[in-house]
Amino acid sequence: MSKIRARVFLDYLRRSKLLTDSELRRSLESLQAKHSGKLPGKTQVIVDHMIEEGVLTQWQCDKLLQKKYKGFFLGKYKLLGHIGSGGMSSVYLAEHTLMRRSRAIKVLPRSRVNDSSYLERFHREAQATAALDHPHIVRAYDVDNQGDTHYLVMEYVSGSDLASIVKEQGALGFEDIARYVVHAARGLQHAHEAGMIHRDVKPANLLVDENGTAKILDMGLALISDDTAELASLTVTHEERVLGTADYLAPEQALNSHEIDHRADIYGLGCTMYFLITGHPPFPEGTLAQRIAKHQQQMPPNVSEIRTDCPPELSRICMQMIQKQPEARFASCDEVADHLVAWLEESGFAVDQREQPVKRQVTTASVVQAMQAATVAPGQSGGDQSAIQLVTGDSGPGVVQPDSSRSGSSLSGSRVELGNEQVGSSIAGAMQSTKHNLLDQTTKQGMRPIKLSHDSSSAKVWLTIVVILVLIVGIIIMMMINSSDDSTAQRLKHRNSNLSAAISTTYNGCIADNRTSYGKAAGAIADENKKRNHLR
Prior knowledge:
By secondary structure, this protein is of the alpha+beta class. The protein is built from 19 helices and 13 strands.
């Protein structure tokens, strides 16, 4: 990282507009108070002070120290840090500039904008997520674009994904495993009832917040069961017949990702449960093609053989979820959750509201309608150069670029899965209304037109009377205005006449006075001449 002088750093900070003038002044005054009224000359001292006060983040300071002061704002959001990057997008931690609420913003790289498949899939994820409202699904609040910068505003969950948790801690406890799978199953059931199949259920797409609640992330590969939806065959159009992650891919999904039902998600969730119990996926070895073939042809070792202390009921549930034939699995995700809840209760573990089913009235038609209504056409919003440069490959001076890796600027303690790459994330917060608020699309469907009462004829009579009264009052007001205008004009005319007379009188008086003065002067001169002639 390049070293810059303190004065240069403060100049870049002012240009970035990350702080208002008053905020910057207060921070510097506080710093001066700690150093006998003098501003330290070392840049790092200033940086450490502002991070300690919470007015700047480490990521923001790192960018400023790299002489990059543009691109910290995207729409109405101020970027606080880079969470992670994947093959399809970059995710940033952001704060609403007015509401001061934390959000996770997924930004589509500019290089992907011209790829219709990626752009449509990006919008698809926003639309699919916005059509769902469940405590175990990460919510989407807004989708928008500024020029070529397309972004999705999501719920921010302070926590980690299950892949990262297992990587750091090893295989989990059986109670935690059962609860996380129940949470995921309840969320998936909600999606299935809306006619939506996730198609990419895996540990990295399950976030766990600070309260131990699991939430489903990333609906980018979701399949809509309504064949009339234009986006339902998006990947078929682009000849992408197999979608998902190999280690958690159902046998039928590996053959054709578009001819599956909700039981493919049950298989993926079963493989996820296998991973949580054993610490690795069902088939951890072999090439990609070999692992996919094993999922189609053979059963993995029973989890109880790998982890001998696994309760028999948990082992049975897990192995039934990953049967090769869909009809041999559980019939629904609710059935999976009910079996696990029963085991928790029999084992003496408390079961709270998070493990209970949450019913939402969401239909396939409403999901498709919300997805179509929420589609954002490229270039509809006004462009902001600094925001556009945020995700471009341009390397102009002072421009903040999205990080290409997790090193350095990634936020610690949180992770997310984008594409096939594990990266840092956290995605919980409250909903707010924004320009293209997708949630509004679903609420509006339930509205009904207000009907008049049965006595409509009486209402019409009163309405006619009111209209006539309004017209009469309007006519009277206009007449008063015209009368007032005439009276004012007459007064002005009289005033102008008096003024002209006064000016004429004054002028004539001045002329008369001048003539008298000239006569007196001439007489005085004549008398003086007579006196001179007499003396001679």
